[in-house]
Amino acid sequence: MTAIPDTQGGFALPRLGRFRGLANAALGIAILLGLWWLGGVAVANDPDMYAFSDFAPGPTLAALWDILSTGEVFEMSGPSLYRVGMGLAIAAALGVPMGIAIGRTPWLREITNVPFQFLRMISPLSWMPIAVMVYDTWDGAIVFLIAVAAIWPILFSTAAGVRRIDPAWLKVARNLGANPLHMLFTVILPAIAVDVLTGIRLALGVAWVVLVPAEYLGVTSGLGYSINDARDILDYSRLAAVVVVIGMIGFALDYICMLLIKRFNWVRDTAH
Amino acid sequence: MIATAFSNTTLRTAPRAVRSANGSHVAVMGLSHTYRKKDGRVLDGIDFEIQPGEVLALLGRSGCGKSTLLHMLSGLTLPSEGEVVVNGNTVRGPSNRWVMMFQAPSLYPWMTVAQNAGLGLRFGRRSHEVVKRVPEVLDLVDLGAYSDRNAQELSGGQQQRVALARSLATNPEMLLLDEPFSALDAFTRRSLQRDVREIAKSLGLTLVLVTHDVSEAVLMADRVLVLDANPGRIADDVTIDLDDAGRTSGSDPFQAEQARLMQLYTQVAHGDLPAAIS
What we know:
The complex is a heterodimer of chains A (272) and B (278). Chain A has 272 residues and is mainly alpha-helical. Helices cover 75% and strands 0% of the residues of chain A. Chain A is built from ten helices and no strands. Chain B is α/β, with parallel strands linked by helices. Chain B has a domain at 2-97 and 172-268: Rossmann fold. In chain B, 33% of the residues lie in helices and 22% in strands. Chain B has helices at residues 2-7, 66-74, 113-117, 119-123, 130-140, 156-168, 186-203, 214-220, 252-268, and strands at residues 26-34, 41-50, 55-59, 81-86, 89-90, 98-101, 174-178, 206-211, 223-228, 233-239. Chain B has a six-stranded mixed beta sheet with strand order 6-7-8-3-9-10, sandwiched between helices. A four-stranded antiparallel beta sheet of chain B has the order 2-1-4-5, with helices on one face. In chain B, a hairpin with a 6-residue loop joins strand 1 and strand 2. In chain B, helix 5 crosses helix 6 and helix 8 (214-220) crosses helix 9. The longest helix of chain B is centred in the C-terminal third of the chain and has 18 residues, at 186-203. Chains A and B meet through helix 7 and helix 8 of A and helix 4 and helix 6 of B.
């Protein structure tokens, strides 16, 4: 027994060295697939549920291959990615400047605190009827819902980052003759880059979750629509394949955010 | 004074381009300061003059307003009464002709050493000078080889040297030091005290430092203003009569000057123990 705890988490497989992380990841995927397969077997053996046996891994993966190989996946996810992208862009365009202003100005923080915390706790989907009334197009309404969902993590994370900026950094910049634009682009934005990106990563998670139910609205494109469509024509393997696609794209987007955070993180382990 | 400094052969010789034309002349006239009305005056009726190229130490215990006074020389804080006049012009805000150095180096951790050192030039719309100036000033503080390193990889003393290079890059006439060595270990502190004095002398800069350390004042300054507290007033104006050979903490003349200043300081401090001599 060693006294050093396994801080990495997961199984400490012996003698796998640097491959341990990969091995554990593969193990996790295998467990998920195994549980899915067991569920499929159980459903297939239950006379009441037999109709749903296409949710099992075999038919689903076949349908997934179909969707991927015909390029239909781009047709399905293109509109969804556009909506999420637009919603996030609007949320960032509003949330980052507001977050900086709130982080820098105590009275603004005090004024906005209660209203913003209140609005944050309202499920974005509860704005749906209003969004549908206000916007001419379904696309507009969905982008609005995503922006409403995504703005809060970005705004709060940015404001928290600004408040953590070392006041000495601002003083030194002023002393060296920085004007307000220098202050913003040379000191504040680099200092909070990781906080902003972390906010965007959280926002992306929320937005991706809100997207699918929002696309159950009147639109005739996107991943949420594809799920509804597959259900209507009782094509359960296709429905499950779209679910897998949603998971994979979400995972990939999150991974990109993580790489960006790593890229812009200036905290070094060697810091004194 | 400047002439003797230039003739000192032990100095690293600064490249010609690094030299400023002249140090600032400073006149402080009738300066008083109150932060909040009910707290009373921090500084009360301060008058003094600093000659170009002079090294002046403001010595006093914490709370005597010495740091506030330095902030007023820099223009980062404006006095409630009186004025600071540099080269005939009243100070109304920060200027790139004088730079302040703080206790913490406060380098930007997302930048390299060279990027940090060139910031003043960038802010002053002199980016075209960066390529030439930054290597010069980094060589001056013995960090030429470190220009592409991340600022966080350096030791505390090295970081403070980068902060010094950053301050010198814009060719200032005056350097204002707010206890910039107090966070460093004794050995690093000694070498920086010596180097900063040498660099200031070789460039002809006016240097003003704030300290509560008597030996630091004796080691670095040509002249020491001992400040009284509550409200801050000038209690003594002492000339440190040491040649460059005498400016080592072991020498007899140094010990004598230190003892003399310590006695004055202790009297001013109303029996309070002065800060430890390190």
